[in-house]
Recover the amino acids of this structure.
């Protein structure tokens, strides 16, 4: 998993530079700096898929929705936790993002969508609340939570 963490480091150092009160602007900056389909994102996807197959990430939960911590905030440049969730046509528990959430969506099937979008960055602004849902297939999502802050329920 050290390869995956190394590949994620440039994003981890970029996340604190984003204004997470404006999700649209933050998504635009992420898509510009780390565009889906770029070599950087493809390398991350390859390493994440391999970690998933080896059971190093997403080792909790049930079929349809498995999750796990990739790194704690204190182990990540920029102070965000990094988590991963592997979802197949499922919805997760409702939660609030006190400091925002930055998601890298890696579809594992052709039509999979998270927040009605396919391969992309999704930023949930600071203070936002949602029920995460993947429709039309299977997706692996890596997400950064500044200071590891999330409120479940």
């Amino acid at each position: 998993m050290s390869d995956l963490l190394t590949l994620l480091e440039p994003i981890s150092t970029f996340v604190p530079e984003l204004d997470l009160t404006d999700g649209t602007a933050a998504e635009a900056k992420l898509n510009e700096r780390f565009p889906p389909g770029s070599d950087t994102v493809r390398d991350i996807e390859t390493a994440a898929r391999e970690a998933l197959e080896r059971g190093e990430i997403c080792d909790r939960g049930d079929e349809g929705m498995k999750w796990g911590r990739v790194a704690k905030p204190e182990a990540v440049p920029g102070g965000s936790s990094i988590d991963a969730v592997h979802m197949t046509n499922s919805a997760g528990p409702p939660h609030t993002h006190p400091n925002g959430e930055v998601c890298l969506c890696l579809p594992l099937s052709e039509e999979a969508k998270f927040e009605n979008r396919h391969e992309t960055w999704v930023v949930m602004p600071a203070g936002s609340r949602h029920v995460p849902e993947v429709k039309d297939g299977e997706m692996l999502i890596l997400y950064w939570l500044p200071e590891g802050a999330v409120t479940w329920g």
The longest strand covers residues 133-146. The two ends are 30 Å apart (CA to CA).
